[in-house]
Amino acid sequence: MTKHWYALHTKPHKERQVDSLLRSRKVETFLPLLKVNPVNPRAAREKPYFPSYLFVHVDIDVIGLSILRWTPGLLRMVEFGGEIGTVPASLISQIRDRLAEIRAAGGMSLDSLSAGDRVRVVSGSFEGYEGVFDVSLSGDERVRVLLELINDHQSHRNRGRTIPVELNAGNIEKLS
User: How far is it, in rounded angstroms, from Cα 31 to Cα 38?
Assistant: First the structure.
């Protein structure tokens, strides 16, 4: 029996439904949630850290794919090159650690960021890149950062060229 972590892509706003259904079937799930302070008092007080995604820890050979694939609210299992992709347990652990850090800091706060502030991407595809905070976007704690992806030291024309990238606010940190 070998369990692996898998990522599931849900229909928009169906993460909790899929999580609940799978848990009722005794499937181990991980739905990363963050506490938020919504403007609308009737809005959810927790939002998915990865909107439309959650993780399951299963042995596919034991439970079968159909129990996952035919879950109401689920779009698909995340695949790479036509193969169901596994998520390293170390990544799940890093996500849990990051959520704990955010909770310990009192939640994600964009109040301390202003346009032009220097930031570093601390997780995700652009981890390690630095840039400039541009603006908070509507939606679930999304921001636009101008990343410095191109830095041609030979040409003064290209120095400081930035690329606008939309990220989850939890993926950046303000630089001193």
Answer: 19
Q: What is the pLDDT of residue 1?
A: 74
| CATH 2.30.30.30 given to domain 118-174 | yes
* Domains in the chain: boundaries: 4-104, 118-174
Fold of 4-104: Alpha-Beta Plaits (3.30.70)
CA nearest 50: which of 165, 142, 117? Answer: 142
Q: At 144, is the secondary structure helix, strand, or coil?
A: strand
47-56 residue pLDDT tens: 888 888 999 9
Q: Which amino acid is located at 35 in the chain?
A: K
Angle ∠(99,101,143) on CA atoms, nearest 5: 65
Cβ 145 vs Cβ 165: under 8 Å: yes
Tell me the DSSP string of 54-104: EEEEE-HHHH-SHHHHT-TTEEEE-EETTEEPEE-HHHHHHHHHHHHHHHH
Q: Is the full-model pTM beyond 0.85?
A: no
Instruction: Say which amino acid occupies 87.
Output: V
Cβ burial, residue 18 (10 Å; 0-12/13-18/19+): buried
